[in-house]
Amino acid sequence: MRLGIVASRFNEALAGKLLERARGEARRLGAEAAVVQVPGALEIPMALQWMAQSGRYDALVAIGAVVRGETYHFEVVANESARGVMEVALQCGVPVANGILTTNDEAQAEARLDKGAEAVRAALEMARVRAQLHEER
Fold first, then answer.
1. Handedness of CA 45, 59, 122, 27 (dihedral sign)
2. What is the rounded distance in angstroms from the CA atom of residue 51 to the CA atom of residue 88?
3. Does the reported pTM lie above 0.85?
4. Three-state DSSP class for 7?
5. pLDDT of residue 136
6. In terms of CB atoms within 10 Å, which of 12, 107, 113, 115 comes out highest?
């Protein structure tokens, strides 16, 4: 399986740990993973779309950490990045798992660092489902 991972650099300490766990899970499952890093969560959908359109990947994963601040910006980033990730999956027909954490504080994010690995498992499972459905045609 060929897996594409798009990872945000924003909140780098948290996002780096998510990415590390995602890469480890991909290796453990025998998937070949290519990683592209982008500035923040809002840039993730565009990079996912480019990867999906390339036809080189069986599945994609979005990795990032959005931590609530004092402004409305958190809601915008959390909602729009999730919407964009889903749009790529539906428009391109490539499984895309959302491993972008949206938490109230860093402690909540630290407690959810396995979401990167979970997103890899979900993406690869959906790629297998897609392949199986194509075989049944």
1. negative
2. 10
3. yes
4. strand
5. 80
6. 115
Token duo for residue 136: 């049944």
Q: What span, in angstroms and rounded, lies between the C-alpha atoms of 96 and 105? A: 25
As given in the structure block, the two tokens for residue 18 are: 């998510």
Query: Is residue 44 very low, low, confident or very high in pLDDT (cuts 50, 70, 90)?
Result: very high
Amino acid occupying residue 9? R
Burial letters 40-50, b for 16+ CB under 10 A, else e: ebbbbbebbbe
> Can 134 be counted among the known catalytic residues?
no
pLDDT tier at 1, thresholds 50, 70, 90? very high
DSSP result, 34-99: EEEEESSGGGHHHHHHHHHHHT--SEEEEEEEEE--SSTHHHHHHHHHHHHHHHHHHHH---EEEE
Q: Which amino acid is at 68?
A: R
Mean pLDDT of the chain: 97
From CA 24, how far away is CA 27, in angstroms rounded? 5
Active site residue: 13, 73, 79, 90, which one?
73
Using CA of residue 10, residue 84, residue 67, residue 33, what is the dihedral sign?
negative
